[in-house]
Amino acid sequence: MKPHAFPKSKRVVSGRSFTLALRKGGCAADGCLVVFAFPRRSGDDRSHQPRRLGVTIPKKTGNAVVRNRWKRWIRESFRTQQAAFPVGFDFVVRPKKDAVGNWNAIQRSLPKLAHKAVRRLKPKGR
């Protein structure tokens, strides 16, 4: 497999995984994106588990052309910078409400927000 490939094993595809990340995961946002992070398993050793990305684009973002552009930019940013993301987490990304798509802003903010969302995870038992 190519080092920067984006196979199905690196994608969040199930509705249950999306729901867990959105409801119970850590969240971080800036003027462009909102990123949710959720650990893959409860075990301590997540180093062998891949990072996974899920993208959700609301219809309020724009027409199909605009929404698909957002998806391409987010996926490409993740694909090329995946080594900068924490290992063993599912990340669900969506654009901020009323945000204007900008490739450079997505490139800068996605890894930074991923780390911030992981830090904001709620500890178990609280």
From TrEMBL:
EC numbers for this chain: 3.1.26.5
Gene Ontology MF terms: 3'-tRNA processing endoribonuclease activity; ribonuclease P activity; tRNA binding
Gene3D superfamilies referenced in this protein's UniProt entry, alphabetically: 3.30.230.10
SUPFAM superfamilies: Ribosomal protein S5 domain 2-like
Any one Gene Ontology BP term: tRNA 5'-leader removal
Pfam families, per database record: Ribonuclease_P
Gene Ontology CC annotations of this record: ribonuclease P complex
Recorded catalytic activity of this chain's protein: Endonucleolytic cleavage of RNA, removing 5'-extranucleotides from tRNA precursor
Keywords attached to this entry: Endonuclease, Hydrolase, Nuclease, RNA-binding, tRNA processing
Keyword Membrane (UniProt): no
InterPro entries: Ribosomal_Su5_D2-typ_SF, Ribsml_uS5_D2-typ_fold_subgr, RNase_P
Self-association state and partner proteins as the record states: Consists of a catalytic RNA component (M1 or rnpB) and a protein subunit.
Family stated for the protein in its record: Belongs to the RnpA family.
Functional summary from the UniProt entry: RNaseP catalyzes the removal of the 5'-leader sequence from pre-tRNA to produce the mature 5'-terminus. It can also cleave other RNA substrates such as 4.5S RNA. The protein component plays an auxiliary but essential role in vivo by binding to the 5'-leader sequence and broadening the substrate specificity of the ribozyme.
HAMAP family the record matches: RNase_P
Protein known as: Ribonuclease P protein component
Organism: Stieleria neptunia
Lineage: Bacteria, Pseudomonadati, Planctomycetota, Planctomycetia, Pirellulales
